[in-house]
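Fill-in record for Bifunctional NMN adenylyltransferase/nudix hydrolase.
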Amino acid sequence: MPHHDPLSSSVTPGDVEQPADLAVLIGRFQPFHNGHAFLLQRALDAAPRVAVVLGSAWHARSARNPFDWRERAAMIAESLPPPDRARVEFIPLRDYYDDVRWCHALRREVETYAGPDKRIALVGHFKDHSSYYLSRFPQWQLISAENFAGINATELRGILFESANPHDALARLEPVVPTAVRLRLEAWMATPEFAALTDEYRQLAKDKAAWSCAPYPPIFSTVDAVVTAAAHVLLVKRGGFPGKGQWALPGGFVEPRERLLKSALRELKEETQLAVDEAELKAALRDVKVFDHPERSQRGRTITHAHYFALDRNELPKVEGSDDAAQARWVAVAALPDMEEEFFEDHFHILDSFLHVLQE
């Protein structure tokens, strides 16, 4: 069911005939800017009720996703006059890194909120390859809008993280974001959280610059290990950027002369010191899946092979964080749903693929 946020509610249609009963606006809004506000106004003009779908909900904070869905909902609500605010509903939607599943979840949430036999319009702008989803809902009326003033949220995040000081960043952002958003950004830039994300952004920029001389953008190959025992799964807490302090699967980059399984076993041993010999791990291998969504990693196109090892043990083998891992710990599988916002990149969804954590 959609989340009925206390910031919003629904009102009855006005006297003017509108092309839809509900208009839908989908985005990450990281952060909400005047281009988004223009699209939202188009949605408000098209229907008496508007559903704003907040993508990347329950995602751990990162330089790409610095604000959680509640903060983004507040930014949008505070940018609207009260009569319009009352017509807007916020629907958070997680990143599944699976287009079919994502589209199904979005349609289910929106149509449940709209009610039966309602006319639904989808408002959006075809800005680049990332806008392909607008054509995935042929049953809804599509209202295509132009790009207002050419504003791009990626560039705005660059201004936030690259400026010499907050005053300069806010001065550059003032013409392109609503006043309510600027005030929120000003408060946020004074927090330790902003400082940590700035460090992450700059480290990623440094890494990308090191590859800039390549004749084409690199594609990275990595491995991850999902290891279970006694209804627990083995996790590590990342010791460096990106994702410093976030929970993740043991894993890393494939070395030039390694086979994938050998690489997964090596990374598992290096990061967790798991007290299980290689023969037992190989016997416990149950599955291998490829995770290759183009947006799964901030580092660039990264394709990982996740290896699932199910240890037939009633006790938990000893582990100790080392190498890139600040900590290694066995975590109860039943506890994973409450940790979703603490996971690095798509690792929660890798776990869900093997362990069916979400129970949807």
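KEY FINDING: The first strand starts at residue 22 and ends at 27.
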